[in-house]
Amino acid sequence: MQLNELSGSTLAYIGDAVWSLLVREYLVELGYGRAKDLQRLSVQFVSAKAQARFYEQLHDAGELSEEEEEIFRRGRNFKSGSVPKHTDVQIYRISTGFEALAGWWHLSGQQERLRKIWEQVRTSVKLAAEQR
Question: What are phi and psi of 120, to 5 degrees?
């Protein structure tokens, strides 16, 4: 598989799954098991608004390399043709760029980098769940 040939949409598709799995594992590790709780808490990590905020934090802190910024732009600039209800188009595109990054880190074997970013993001979200 040639990563350079994958569209931003494809990278985001993989990234969405990878990011969701990180979040789900984390919430289960915290002791949550009820689907209602898992869904409610996961939104703090997987919603378009949350992912856009994570990207902006990383970008503003200078955490991303030029290559990573390029991957982000590839995902952000992909025109999907549809945007979920109650989501601003710009927010949705930024979150798609963030997901493309997660997909790229995963597919390019950069698990350590993905885990580092996950830890930064995870610690920026204060969950009541962590008090358990």
Answer: -65, -45
Active site residue 37: no
**Catalytic residue (choose from 16, 37, 60, 88):** 16
Nearest-CA neighbor of 12 among 115, 109, 101?
Answer: 101
* Tokens of residue 35, six digits: 């689907």
d(CA 96, CA 11): 9
Q: Residues of 62-94 as b/e, b for ≥16 C-beta within 10 angstroms?
A: eebeeebeebbebbbebeeeeeeeeeeeebbbb
Tell me the C-alpha distance between 31 and 27, whole Å: 7
| 10-67: pLDDT as tens digits | 999 999 999 999 999 999 999 998 999 899 999 989 999 999 999 999 999 999 999 9
Nearby residues of 58 by Cβ (< 8 Å), 6 or more positions away: 64, 117, 120
Instruction: Compute the distance between CA of residue 55 and CA of residue 72 in angstroms, rounded to an integer.
Output: 9
Question: Are 25 and 68 contacting, i.e. CB atoms less than 8 angstroms apart?
Answer: no
Closest to 84 (Cα-Cα) out of 38, 114, 44, 46: 46
